[in-house]
Amino acid sequence: MDGQDFKTTRWLRPVSWLYGTGVWIRNKLFDWGWIRSESFDLPVICIGNLAVGGTGKTPHTEYLVRLLRNQRLNVATLSRGYRRKTKGYLLADDQSDAQAIGDEPRQMKTKFPDLRVAVDEDRRHGIRELMKLTRPQVDVVLLDDAFQHRRVRAGLNILLTDCHRLLTDDALLPEGRLREPAEGKGRAQVVVVTKCPDDIKPIDFNIITKKLGLQPWQRLFFTGLRYGQPRAVFPQSAGITERPEAWGAEKQVLLITGIAQPAPLLEEVRTKAGHVDHLAFGDHHDFCRKDFRLIEERFDRLEGTRRLLLTTEKDAARLKNHPLMPERLKPYLYALPVEIKVLQNQQLTFNQTIIDYVRKNPRNRIVPPREDAHPS
Fold first, then answer.
1. 56 marked as part of a ligand binding site
2. Taking Cα atoms as reference points, which of 232, 258, 183, 137 lies closest to residue 27?
3. Claim to verify: residue 203 and residue 155 sit in the same structural domain
4. Are residues 180 and 312 in the same domain?
């Protein structure tokens, strides 16, 4: 926490300057009103970042879903459905797989079966379609990864930045991982520093706060990760293997990840199991026959009978209905759920910030009386 612990590709800096110039011009066209942004007659909350991948958007979106549903609000999520095989607007149902809507929307629909989960490359069109829904009508839309989608003017922008790679320490693509210059943070009403370690020190909060240099009207929060118990991806097959809750020195784990930043998960699993082998694939990886052969080979190398094939919830969304998933591995495949926790005793403040925005900007309806901002 005492300095930059990642590298940028400095020889690509001239390309980053060209890229940055294009992004700057685009943002100015929006700022000056030459390209129009559209507002909507209901609360729209954007959860996004300035960097590519790995800041924890999905668990933060899930947190907001729980929070707002606890307030008896009808919530919908909207994303582009990254790497899906379909186009246009789709409203997910129980049969929608990751190929149709993307792995993260599929994960969301699995966790919240009655949640409206929609995908559309054109977020404006997607919001209009969601507003047509009735029985019940949508009260609030959560936009997943839409901070750069400026044709929609969200009422509340929540910007995420990784504790280990702050946006103010990073560089523009392709030298670094920023999609736009760090000053883009000025469009956010709320900034969240994510993936903070459990042993973060009070001085680290102060250092990060100073580095970010936010405006007085911007709210800053810090969050960490909280992992749950592994859950069977194929529960109908899980009965023939032992329960994974029995973590211990005897447990042999093959961890499969297709996410941008697997390090925190790997560290967590290593604290719970005696031996961990890790197969890391790229973010949103599309598993093929060769991958499954490799997974089988590595799993067979694990010794003893206390073996576990562990993955993320996002990867599980792709693996669950994959036609090439080996039948013999299904009983051993478990997903490790993850949630966020708001640090510094700021959970109630964070919750109330979100709830107050929604209550002050309701759709044309009578909003139920306000309840306390109960922790999720």
1. yes
2. 183
3. yes
4. no
* CATH value at residue 258: 3.40.50
Q: Is residue 298 a part of any domain in this protein?
A: yes
Claim to verify: residue 177 and residue 198 sit in the same structural domain: yes
Asked if residue 109 belongs to a known ligand binding site, the reply is no
Report the distance separating Cα 318 and Cα 334, nearest Å. 13
Q: 327 and 356 in one domain?
A: no
Based on the fold, state whether residues 301 and 211 are members of the same structural domain: no
- The answer to whether residues 235 and 207 belong to one domain is no
What residue numbers bound the domain in which 356 lies?
Answer: 35-226+341-360
DSSP structural state of residue 238: G
How many structural domains are present in the chain?
2
Q: Is 356 within a domain? A: yes
Q: Note whether 352 and 55 are within 8 A (CB).
A: no
Check whether residue 167 and residue 51 sit in a common domain.
yes
Max distance between CA atoms of the chain, in angstroms, equals: 65
Domain check: are 116 and 248 in the same one? no
- Residue ranges of alpha helices (H) inside 218-322 are 263-270, 289-300, 313-319
Q: Is 53 annotated as a binding residue?
A: yes
Q: Does 55 belong to an annotated binding site?
A: yes
Q: What's the rounded Cα separation, in Å, for the pair 314 and 53? A: 13
CATH of the domain at 179: 3.40.50.300
Q: Is 51 annotated as a binding residue?
A: yes
Residue among 359, 132, 179 nearest 116 (CA): 132
pLDDT in tens, the chain (376 residues): 544 555 667 878 889 899 999 999 999 999 999 999 999 999 999 999 999 877 889 999 999 999 999 999 999 999 998 889 999 999 999 999 988 999 899 999 999 999 999 999 999 999 999 999 999 999 999 999 999 999 999 999 999 999 999 999 999 998 989 999 999 999 999 999 999 998 999 999 999 999 999 999 999 999 999 999 899 999 877 654 545 555 677 789 999 998 888 888 999 999 988 899 999 998 888 899 999 999 999 999 998 778 899 999 989 988 988 999 999 999 999 999 999 999 999 999 999 999 999 999 998 654 444 444 554 4
